[in-house]
Design a protein that fits this description.
Distance between the termini: 40 Å
Oligomer: single chain
Bound molecules: S-adenosylmethionine
Strand content: 15-25%
Shape: globular
Strand order of the largest sheet: 3-2-1-4-11-10-5-6-8-7-9
CATH topology: Rossmann fold
Structural class: alpha/beta
Length: 279
């Protein structure tokens, strides 16, 4: 399944371990904004860098560079209120990332394992955004069947400006809503529909390195309607940190996991900058 993952023993090890070998594989940014904004970079060797920046938020952002399967394995059950994520799509064209190969041999197993892990570490709802395409549709439909008892809703993200295509145009993506508790999805306000419309992110400022960055409106729509201020939110496929930036602006605590070191570093820069801009 992709590149080998770092060999973390426990969640505490991820944050506290001192072995240089361990830090070669897993780096953690702790962005703590409890009155001052602390940015701690733990690196291979004994270097610990700390930078304090003033903000007025009361949220924390924890960014982890590692494989989400390994990292989630070290996390306790029910550690988060909400999961919001968007896994790689398994596009055979492999044209979305500079630092990640978007081809997984057993994509169904990859999806299945990640949904199982998300359900275990989340005590609330898992929002799992996935685009069905001609390469992955059997796996996506099989996934929906395998998690039929946990699949409590399917929200449709309708794209107002989908990419043109000589075949039928792919103008929507699923947001699968899964929960271990068999309850229907509750929204924060009455008259909340299970579909919404936003444009695709054609203005993505990171497209030179990552062409699968989500439009922030997709994440903010979901969190605004189905999460609340102060919630802890996990994104195990963090990419360029859209979920983290949105959580910061909405007063939610964020944990993000990203396998690529470059995307992880860019995400930390982005969350840092956007938090500075927001407040
Ligand atoms: C669809 S992108 C997520 C984009 C993100 N929502 C954003 O707006 O930037 C999927 C991301 O998952 C990362 N990824 C793939 N396999 C992973 C793994 N096993 N653990 C952690 N991250 C992984 C890829 O590097 C990629 O950045």
């Amino acid at each position: 399944m992709g590149e080998p993952c770092p060999n973390a023993k426990s969640y505490t090890d991820l944050i506290e371990a001192k072995e240089p070998k361990f830090f070669l594989k897993t780096r953690t940014f702790l962005l703590d904004h409890t009155s001052i904004f602390t940015y701690i970079l733990r690196y291979p060797s004994s270097i610990n860098k700390t930078m304090n920046l003033k903000t007025e938020t009361k949220t924390t952002s924890k960014l982890i560079n590692g494989c989400c399967f390994e990292v989630m394995n070290t996390m306790p059950d029910n550690a988060f209120d909400v999961v919001f994520t968007s896994p790689p799509y398994n596009r055979k064209r492999n044209d979305k990332y500079n630092n990640h190969t978007d081809i997984v041999d057993d994509y169904y197993q990859f999806l299945h394992d990640s949904v199982s892990d998300c359900l275990r570490v989340c005590k609330g709802n898992v929002f799992y955004n996935i685009q069905k395409n001609s390469y992955n549709r059997q796996d996506v439909h099989r996934l929906m069947g395998a998690f039929a008892p946990e699949l409590i809703e399917v929200i449709i993200w309708h794209k107002s400006n989908p990419m043109p295509n000589p075949h039928v145009i792919n103008a929507y993506e699923y947001i699968l809503v899964l929960s271990s508790e068999n309850k229907s999805l509750k929204a924060n306000k009455t008259y909340t529909k299970n579909h919404f419309t936003t444009p695709v992110y054609s203005a993505n400022p990171y497209k030179h390195i990552h062409r699968a960055v989500m439009h922030p409106e997709v994440c903010s729509h979901v969190l605004l309607n189905f999460a609340k201020e102060g919630d802890s939110v996990l994104d195990p496929f963090m990419g360029m940190g859209t979920t983290g930036a949105v959580c910061s602006s909405m007063g939610m605590n964020f944990t993000g996991i990203e396998k690529s070191l470059e995307y992880y570093q860019e995400a930390s820069k982005r969350i840092n900058e956007e938090t500075q801009l927001t407040f």
